[in-house]
Every structure is written in C-alpha cells, then in structure tokens.
Write a structure and sequence with these properties.
The protein is of the alpha/beta class. The chain is about 35% helix and about 15% strand. The protein has ten helices and twelve strands. Strand 6, helix 4 and strand 7 form a beta-alpha-beta unit.
Amino acid sequence: MSTEKMAIRRKSLLYKTAVEYGDYTINHVEGCSHGCLYPCYAMMMARRFGKVKSYEEWLRPKIVSNAIDLLKKEIPRHRDKIKFVHLCFSTDPFMYGHETITNLSFELVSLLNESGIKCTSLTKGILPIKLAQLSDQNEFGITLISLNEDFRKEYEPFASPYKDRIESLYRLHKKGIKTWVSIEPYPTPNIIDQDFGSILKAISFVDKIIFGRLNYNPMVSQYPSYKDFYDSLSREVIEHCIRNNQEWHIKNGTMYGWSKKIGHPDDSISAGKGFDSRI
C-alpha cells in the first residue's frame, strides 16, 4: 500500500522531549518501514501503548496528514522556548524509498527555518541534497553502526545501504552543512565482530559523533566484560574526535567505570567547540 493512502490525523505535533540530546521534536509519521531488529525501542513503545499491533503494521508508515497545518499553528506558541527541533525520535524523517515522507520532512524543516528555528535530523535513509538549500544552521545526521552489509540486511533489513547513507551525508558536508553520525545502538562482538576504527575512519569528515551501547538485547550482557568493551570504545571515540577536531557525545549508560574514574557526574559526556553540544 502506498504511503499516500496510509495517513492519520493528530491534535498536536510539536512537543518538548526528555531525550538527553533533544529539545523540541516532531514525529510526523507513525511507524517505520526500515524494520530494525536490534530491537527497535520506538516500535516496542508503539506496541506497548497500542499504536501498532504487529511488526508488519509498524512496517507500513502512516503520514500525519495535517502535520503542516498543526506546525503552522504551534510555532507561534512555542517559538520563544525552542532552541532547536529534532526530526525524529520515534520514526525516520527520510525513510528509504518513501519520497512522500522525505518531501513532507523537507517542507516541515523549511517552515521551521522560515520562523528562525534551527532543525536537526537523524536518518537511516538517504539525505536529499536539496537540504543544502535551507538554513546553514541546520544539522543533519545518519545512524551508522557497521559497514557490513550482511549485518545491515539482518538488523536494518529495509534501511538504506551504508555506503549510500554515508555518501548522502558527505554531499551535504561538501556543501558546507553541519553533519553528524550516531553510532548507536552499537553491538557487542558476540553479535558482530568488526573493526570499530574503520567505522570512525569512514566518518572522519563529520562535525560530531554520538556513541551509544545496544540496549534491550540479552546478547549484550552475555558478552564477557561488555562494560569494559563499551568503556574502551567510548575512549576511542573521544580520542578520535580530539584528533579530528570533532565534537562528541557519549550516551547515558554507555560508559561505566571510566566515567566514574574521570570524575564525570553521570554516565554521559559531551565536549567540543562550535557545534551544539545538545545534539
């Protein structure tokens, strides 16, 4: 069934999020055709609260048909409180193979920019080059937890190929747009044994890296010394970012003993200059 025929209406769109690196957000699509099997937290919550009944239903995204009208009404009410708006925390704004969703996301970012509001986004799809036409304050990112296509086909079965994902991000970078990568949820070696350094090398051009562990998968805790594993990779991210003059953010619950050793007050850490450390 085409995305155009799958639609829902909502009473509100723009809201303040409690996500640690968020401010305001919009989720203008329900469901996600990428079908990630880490498992996907967004799908777990959608099923828990009765928004979808099955994995198959989650794979059939529904556009919020009144998203533009809602945003036009809500921007004046929230504008003075908004630092930035993120697309999206419970779906994908540039869903692979769904041009209608991509076009709607572009319209929403344009509308927010016209009101002087900066936007950020994260995708496992392809970032359209026309995003470079919008505000140079925007920040666009991709999720990248591997370079292995066999792994992607197993855990992100309907998302874009990793190479295509990186190339779309690089094209925006070449246009002078701020770019970032979320290496989350990163798997332990008993799920896939891979060269972490090669992933960092592939994204050495970006402005910022976010790193986070894989949650909600029992295989993680079955890996010996998984806490030391995530501590070690967190250090590797930070050292890489220092060498490449990039910003970084290590997600809550990813670092264990090392964050306490360096005297950090919680289990997350951000640092860098020139890039919004909240993202």
